[in-house]
Amino acid sequence: MQLLRFLTSLAALVALLVPAAGAQDRTRVVPTSRAEIQASFAPLVKQVSPTVVNIYTRTVVQQQARSPLFDDPFFRRFFGDQLGGATRERVQRSLGSGVIADPRGYVVTNNHVVAGAQEITVVLHDRREFEAELILADERTDLAVLKIDPAGAPLPALGFGDSDELEVGDLVLAIGNPFGVGQTVTSGIVSALGRTMVGDADTQSFIQTDAAINPGNSGGALITMDGRLAGINTAIFSRSGGSLGIGFAIPSNLVASVLHAATLGTGVVRPWTGATFQAVTAEIAQSLGFDRPVGVIVRAVYPKGPADRAGIRVGDVITSVDGREVLDPRMLKFRIATKPVGQTAQVEIRRAGAARTVRFPLEAAPENPPRDETLIKGNIPLAGATVANLSPAVAEETGMPPDATGVVITGVARGSPAERLRLRPRDLVLAIDGQDVKRVSDLTGLLANHQGGWRIAVQRGEQTVNLVIR
What we know:
Elements: H1 2-17, H2 21-27, H3 34-37, H4 42-48, E1 52-64, H5 73-79, E2 87-102, E3 106-110, H6 111-114, E4 119-123, E5 129-131, E6 133-138, E7 143-147, E8 171-176, E9 184-195, E10 206-209, E11 221-224, E12 229-236, E13 247-251, H7 252-264, E14 275-279, H8 282-288, E15 296-301, H9 306-309, E16 317-321, E17 324-325, H10 329-337, E18 344-351, E19 354-361, E20 374-375, E21 385-389, H11 392-398, E22 407-412, H12 417-420, E23 428-432, E24 435-436, H13 440-448, E25 454-460, E26 463-469
Antiparallel strand pairs: 1-2, 1-4, 2-3, 3-7, 4-5, 6-7, 8-9, 8-11, 9-10, 10-13, 11-12, 12-13, 14-15, 15-16, 16-17, 16-18, 18-19, 20-21, 21-22, 22-23, 23-24, 23-25, 25-26
């Protein structure tokens, strides 16, 4: 009897540890053809890899040999750059990737790859090297377009796909030059679409992918399975500096609009909305009777601007552009930014619970008043700051509200008195010594006739800062 019980228990244990033959067949499938055994990305890589290039930049910077003590902001406020050792030159080198987007020699890359570079070298897949000219740099989209001269030799170019047709789960390849090791291909899927809370640009709606993207991949190509450009790899989320499987690419539709401007020889001119917006939160959606948070609420409308002429009012909720859903203001601006000036877009709005569609005119923002961009010079606290009159055009370029007025700082020179005061682009100069500043001419006049100490009122966002310099 005991032997029988032992044998029964042993049989039960074996049944648990060794699955039945039928169960094994269901979980492991043997390839049934030579084609399945040899499935590979190799043909696709051979087709597209010649269109992806390496980019090397060289920048000469001036550096003072001095004690680190004088880099402390406290000491720099009083002594500036007057103390320290002799000035010496230092060469900064960086690397990145790019994509040949036009057989005439136009190469698309990230703006941050080539920003400030004095020399740019493009190295092709076949190891040919070319000096490149920077044709267009667009900081707001982090895109730049270079031009190389192949001296009549043919150049392969990568065709553009429609990034709006991508779906989460689609297979993609990332091609670039990570860490300078040479052209590298990684594979993954589209992890998410419409990522807008990445970086500072207000016109971005990134593609997220788990294809490995590392430093040096910036400006490289994200490729679909039909051999077309899905996006330009631009950023990663990382705690260590390496890939964690969360990478981001600029959609090809936005890349195409920037490339088009470069080939025409014009700057990037984006349609403007003439309105300000706020995302619909869960609480707002509930108060409006929506079944979920979607769209953006119109907070303000610029008189006679595109939104005003389209019949859009304060309180309307914009839910889609040309049938593409929008979830926040950045996504709305992205949808508008990919459209050409001079056409119209179909914008769906919700008003008092009813849905309606309006025709939205796509036009450039007017420059009224003229910007009168001026670099402040002299032995004064604002020296080194570049200022301009705010207009809808300047507001669009700087990402400020379309109805903003006054004098805005558009740039600050490194090492200048304005930088030592920690002034930044997008700061508004409100007043000098209690006298209001409405135009650049007001500011330059007050600076020219100034005597004694300084009292400068500056607005940064919703905060007003009063600077007193004696």
